[in-house]
Amino acid sequence: MPLKLIRTEDDRTLTIERGLYTKRFLLIVDRETCRGCGICERVCHTGAISLHERLKEVIDGKERAVRAQIDIDPHLCDHCGMCEATCPFVAITHTLNGEPMVCVHEANAFPEYIREIVIDESKIAPFIKKAETLCPLGLVSVEDGKLAIDERSCPCCRVCEDRTDGAIKVRKIFHGSIKIEQAKCPKGCQNCFDVCPVEALELGDDGKVYPIDKFCVYCEACVKVCPEPEALTVTRTSIRHTQVKSGAWNKALEKLATGTALEQEMRTKRTSKVAESMTRRQVIGAGGD
Fold first, then answer.
1. Are residues 75 and 15 in the same domain?
2. Cα–Cα distance for residue pair 143/188, rounded to 1 Å
């Protein structure tokens, strides 16, 4: 049993502190950075994380949906770090005795997302003055006269690529699909549009919401606020990540992506094992000659 177990929160931050004899674990959720997507809720192996709908807010006399809010049960959380390892927005951090620590990374049980973002310095100059408008999450800035991107927090939506005419090149972390069944959408509802963090949804002239697939990061923040379960479907078919051999990750992948993605990853691992085995045999055979 922990000697200390404290949960504190305000509008900006949720903190879980667990104190043992020689260890002090701290989990911090930045609620402004959190987009209410629910990826952490999906992978949490203890069921400690939940997301809750919130009342709409009124802006300029018009109701607007608010993204779902994360909550964590301190009695169930074991500070494994799965939530931090899989959050595409880097809204969750863990420390151990004051030092950053993601247990599943330290144990090589979970991979890291591959974020591939390249700035073409020969083409970017005209867009430096527009830096603040290039990213819907505000991750692009100017440092010492050069464009800078907070790559660690980037979900790789490709909006900046579009707004710089390709001077910034981005490869997505998640691949998948988003579908909206317009006939099933409640009349006048635009909840999904209100909460999309990367402007991957747009309002048509008919007042209906339409997806912009090339910008979607398939995070499911929109799904969390949709009042009609069958109207909006988001599917993740593959995830770009560093290599890892882990049963824990395979279980998480089952929750994050479709069966096709898991089968593809397992085939890749089997092929890699066969290749390694063949290489070892060739080396042993050559050594025996």
1. yes
2. 43
Cβ atoms of 211 and 180 within 8 Å: the answer is yes
8 and 57 both lie in a single domain: yes
Whether the full predicted model's pTM is greater than 0.90, yes or no, is no
Q: Whole domain around residue 121: which residue ranges?
A: 116-171
Burial class (CB in 10 A: 0-12, 13-18, 19+), 168: buried
Spatial neighbors of 194 by CB under 8 A, at least 6 apart, are 64, 65, 66, 225
pLDDT in tens, 69-123: 999 999 999 999 999 999 999 999 999 999 999 999 999 999 999 999 999 999 9
- Residue 17's contacts (CB-CB under 8 Å, 6 or more residues apart) are 4, 5, 6, 7, 8, 24, 25, 26, 27
Q: Choose one of 239, 256, 276: the last residue of a domain.
A: 239
140/158 same-domain check: yes
CATH of the domain at 10: 3.30.70
For residue 155, pLDDT over 50 is answered with: yes
In Å, what is the CA distance from 64 to each residue of 110, 155, 163, 191? 37, 24, 26, 7
CB neighbours of 162 closer than 8 A, spacing ≥ 6? Answer: 214, 215
CA torsion through residues 25, 31, 32, 38, sign: positive
Q: How many CB atoms lie within 10 A of CB 7?
A: 16
Is 86 in the same domain as 131? no
Give percent of the chain above pLDDT 90.
82
Q: How many domains does the chain divide into? A: 3
Determine contact, residues 70/36, Cβ cutoff 8 Å. Answer: yes
Question: Please, are residues 246 and 108 in contact by the beta-carbon 8 Å criterion?
Answer: yes
Q: Could you give the 3-state DSSP secondary structure of residue 180?
A: strand
